[in-house]
Amino acid sequence: MCGIVGIIDKQSRSLETDIIKMRDAMPYRGPDGIGETCLRSDGIALGHRRLTILDLTDAGSQPMTNESGTMVIVHNGEVYNFIELKKELEGFGYRFKSRTDTEVILSAYDKWGVDCLKRFNGMFAFAIWDKKKQEMFIARDRLGIKPLYYFYDHDKLLFASEVKSILKVLKPRLEINHNLIDLYMSFGYVPGEHTLVKGIKRLLPGHFILWNEKKLINEKYWDVSLENSHDHGLPYYVKELKNLLNSSIDLRLRSDVPLGIFLSGGIDSSAVVALLAPRVNKQLKTFSVAYDFGADYNETNYARIVARQFNTDHHELIVSPSQFRDFIPQYVYHMDEPVTESAAISLYYIAKMASDYVRVVLSGEGSDELFAGYDFYYYNIIIEKWRRILANKNISDLSELLCGLLPDNRIRKYLRMSLIPLEKRYKGISTYEEEVKKRLYTSDFKRFIAGKYEEGPHDFLSSLFQHTKNNDVLSRMLYFDMKTWLVDDLLIKADRMSMAASLELRVPFLDHRLVEFAAQIPSHCKISGKSTKVIVKEMLKGILPDTIIYRKKMGFPTPLKHMFQGELQDYAYGLLIASSANIRTYFRSAEIKRLLDEHASGRKDNHRIIWQLVVLETWLKSLAFYSGSFDVMPARQERIGA
Fold first, then answer.
1. Alpha-carbon 444 to chain mean position
2. Do residues 359 and 257 make contact, with C-beta atoms less than 8 angstroms apart?
3. Is 2 a known active-site residue?
């Protein structure tokens, strides 16, 4: 687990200084070592920050060159099956000086070219410069567990593990993608390859870039097949799931440093503990975090049940409202992009605590998106059934009438949703209400986004539904969430908050073999009636107590509702309705104040939209700080419509 940066620019006169600026913009990603390589004649510079996990000696330092000196690599993450690949490559005559997976990646690319990606099992983002071919090969893992950002303008290519590294050297100043503010307000993050910073893109999961002087090629090398029409029966799927999950956990134990587990007390993290504990000799270290706002925000009792059953060395942390408030600017800084994932702050604090004991942790991330762990999926399946009933025009007209008469409540919300096709309605778990969003927008901003339809991002979202047009409703939602919510919210949170504490986080449920298997499972094995995640619960019968298996999902809950009525109330008012607030460019101050007043008085729970605005405003303020050369806002509001 590290941080990587790179520059391709034959015209640059400052390769050496720029690569160091980029590398040192994220010191927390690699406190154990630094390195850079500058090949001025090639116009290439690579930089690396190291967090030592495998081979703690200098033999694992990066940038790393292959035995013949023809290739150099920088790598972030882990290829877990490197031991098996190493043996295979040794059979072809390759020799190795270190015990690292990085050296294996180099030899695998030398042997198999881009097809090496199909052989890797892991989480990774890496770049390899081939001196002979004068080509740069950049790749990201199948699920997007590890991040990779890039900027390309034909004259130069910049890439890094974090946006802030690119901003350190990118000139001239960039602008904000103002039109993508609307997507952020719909999702709570910006999905797909585009970011809110113009010109900077994400390398999508399962994609690679191949650059030479003639062109830049961006290609997909992996996607998941959703062929689940053949039903082998629940017992078969349960057995296979257990075997694959055990295999995935075994691979993720490969480490030369201490390892622990984030244990929330939920079914997924508890499953990792339950399956791992009987197979290790040492006592497992487990870590839990909570807020002191009552049982709805504290899962530690459940975590203790699992910790006692499997005799773990268990550690707990209570986060206070003042700690939450004080970390907001750092949270936004580390996240690099505005992402309204409030649970990330508690994740940072537990990661910081865990880093005093271990260097690597396992977590249950990804299971809900593979096996349908949210009630939201069940509700949307019901909505689709209603849509078939509402195909009758008279009933549809009656529903429209009821939507206008009913008070603003959940019944009205779901009735209105049933009038809209899944492709236009579904935005994943973090869906924000369109009506609230539109009331916030200034007239100028409404006109701007109406005339600035961004084809790229919207085409990406449409393509996800097009890919699943022949699949059942649940499969379509799970695929959409795997490509959006999982990668651009949950995995960004997991990477940024763990790395902010210089801790490597591994996610056994996102082994690509397990993901491919999950996509083949019939939907009735995931949701049956109102019961979610059926197959996972069935697998854990007799292994975990029923109080863990069948309890209501919580998942690092954050008491934002209460905090915006208490400790964070003045903070939110002071930030969002100040005359200097950057969000005035997009949103009506009077409407923001109305939302704050409603929430403070208890008339309505607006904590989600308030937090979304807090994150965006803090991000806008932070840009100038960590870029050093960023024009945060237009000089005049009229420039938005320019």
1. 32
2. yes
3. yes
Answer yes or no: is pLDDT of 625 > 60. no
* Structure letter (DSSP) for residue 488: I
CA-based R_g, the chain, Å: 25
pLDDT at 393 over 70: no
Which of 2, 38, 116, 525 is the catalytic position? 2
CA dihedral 496, 1, 350, 616 (to 10 degrees): 0
Contacts of 443 (CB under 8 A, 6+ apart): none
Beta bridge partners of 288: 316
Supply the DSSP string of 96-125, one letter for each residue.
-SSS-HHHHHHHHHHHHGGGGGGG--EEEE
Q: How far apart are CA 234 and CA 236, in angstroms?
A: 5
10 Å Cβ neighbour count for 355?
Answer: 18
**381 φ, ψ to 5°?**
-65, -40
pLDDT tens digits for 344-367? 999 999 999 999 999 999 999 999
DSSP annotation of 358: -
For 438-486, the pLDDT digits (tens) are 899 999 999 888 866 556 677 899 999 999 999 999 999 999 999 999 9
Stated pTM of the model: 0.93
Euclidean distance between the first and final Cα of the chain, in Å?
A: 43
Q: Are strands 157-160 and 207-211 parallel, antiparallel or unpaired?
A: unpaired
Distance separating alpha carbons of residues 298 and 314, to the nearest angstrom: 16
Give, to the nearest 10 degrees, the angle between helix 321-335 and helix 607-627.
Answer: 50
Give the separation between CA 117 and CA 326, rounded to whole angstroms. 42
Q: Which residue's structure tokens are 């690119």?
A: 166
pLDDT for residue 404 is more than 60:
no
